[in-house]
């Protein structure tokens, strides 16, 4: 059993203790009921989304390593206990949570998902108190993505005496899921106010400064996609890895490209992903992401980019007249043809 002691801190938005910076996001006193864990139920989960602009606004920058988080607890019985708790963090592209949302976050574009504190025991804090949770694994912010913070309660029992977190009134930035007997898996529209947090950070410069990353379809080269990226600086950069996904969830590494080691000059890179089978792709989008690995094996992931494509025009799926009625290819007059890739064309038969 771990006994977590409360840490009383100053009310300033950003301050430092020794070489560590502590930055606060949010200062209102709205009741975020059911967060971080809903003690009325055997199992629960909460998701909290914080924007890149909010992190930048309190002085957190790219390469900062987040080493601890604090929440502002209220009305928990002193000694209230929850076991088997887990905190995770991830980079996310979206600026709001879907409604309804799934507890597996399948509709979000997530990268660098990290279990920052695993299987710990929580004891309630008396009064209105900032409670601190030191991470087992630090989370390095990339400087551009929003951050998703999740708290998983797998205690398996419930008891009275639970309280809530203080926060601010914002829609679709905090959702909760809860259930008795087994862990919640169904989608939920249960929206909550967004909890106030304090993040402990230390500066850990990223091995590279990524200047740009883009992709475009080269239809004249056998349905190929050209990927370009550039770096403003590199430090101990061994190689890049390019990843591809057809749904934004399942990824495969498609190539590795050697890095420059150490450089302070603008460097450009290019790779062509050849012979993509476009007609098998749903939603006309392929997703790519870039990662970098340094000489000691440490890997950093960068923001996901979508590349809009169009499947090959291979066959007609429908023919209609101007009234929208189905006709065949021998119809006299104007025929509107819709192809397999969504493109329409018009022909006129005399």
Quick gist of this model?
With 350 residues, this protein is mostly beta strands. The model is unreliable at 1-18 (pLDDT under 50).
Structure description:
There is one protein chain. The chain is mostly beta strands and 350 residues long. The chain folds into 3 domains: 14-203, Jelly Rolls; 208-308, Immunoglobulin-like (Sandwich); 316-349, no CATH class. Helices cover 2% and strands 53% of the residues. It is built from 1 helix and 23 strands. The strands form 4 sheets. Strands 1, 2, 3, 5, 8, 10, 12 and 13 form an 8-stranded antiparallel sheet that branches. It is flat and about 85 Å long. Mean pLDDT is 87; it is low at 1-18.
Q: What topology emerges from the helices and strands here?
A:
Blueprint: E1 14-17, E2 20-25, E3 30-32, E4 43-50, H1 52-57, E5 64-74, E6 81-92, E7 110-123, E8 129-140, E9 146-153, E10 164-168, E11 174-179, E12 194-195, E13 197-203, E14 208-218, E15 224-245, E16 252-263, E17 267-273, E18 285-294, E19 299-301, E20 305-308, E21 316-320, E22 333-339, E23 344-349
Antiparallel strand pairs: 1-2, 2-13, 3-10, 4-9, 4-11, 5-8, 5-10, 5-13, 6-7, 6-9, 10-12, 14-15, 15-16, 15-17, 15-18, 18-19, 18-20, 21-22, 22-23
């Amino acid at each position: 059993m771990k006994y977590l002691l409360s840490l009383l801190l100053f009310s300033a938005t950003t301050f430092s203790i020794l070489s560590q910076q502590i930055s606060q996001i949010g200062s209102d006193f709205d009741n975020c009921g059911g967060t971080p864990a809903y003690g009325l139920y055997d199992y629960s989960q909460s998701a909290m989304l914080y924007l890149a602009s909010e992190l930048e606004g309190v002085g957190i920058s790219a390469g900062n390593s987040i080493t601890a988080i604090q929440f502002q607890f209220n009305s928990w019985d002193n000694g209230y206990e929850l076991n088997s708790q887990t905190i995770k963090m991830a980079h996310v592209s979206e600026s709001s949570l879907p409604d309804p949302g799934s507890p597996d976050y399948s509709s979000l574009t997530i990268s660098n998902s990290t279990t920052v504190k695993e299987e710990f025991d929580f004891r309630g804090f008396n009064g209105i108190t900032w409670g601190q949770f030191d991470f087992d694994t630090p989370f390095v912010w990339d400087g551009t993505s929003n951050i998703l913070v999740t708290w998983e309660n797998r205690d398996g029992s419930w008891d009275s005496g639970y309280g809530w977190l203080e926060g601010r009134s914002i829609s679709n930035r905090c959702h909760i899921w809860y259930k008795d007997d087994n862990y919640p898996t169904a989608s939920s529209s249960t929206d909550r106010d967004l909890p106030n947090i304090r993040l402990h950070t230390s500066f850990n410069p990223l091995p590279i400064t990524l200047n740009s990353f883009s992709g475009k379809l080269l239809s004249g080269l056998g349905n190929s996609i050209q990927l370009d990226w550039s770096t403003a600086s590199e430090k101990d950069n061994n190689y890049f890895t390019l990843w591809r996904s057809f749904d934004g969830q399942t990824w495969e590494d498609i190539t590795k490209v050697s890095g420059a080691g150490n450089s302070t000059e603008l460097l450009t890179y290019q790779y062509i992903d050849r012979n993509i089978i476009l007609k098998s792709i749903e939603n006309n989008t392929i997703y790519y992401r870039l990662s970098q690995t340094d000489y000691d094996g440490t890997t950093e992931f960068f923001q996901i980019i979508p590349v809009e494509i169009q499947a090959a025009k291979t066959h007609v799926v429908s023919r209609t007249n101007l009234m929208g009625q189905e006709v065949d290819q021998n119809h006299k007059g104007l025929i509107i043809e819709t192809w397999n890739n969504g493109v329409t064309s018009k022909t006129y038969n005399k």
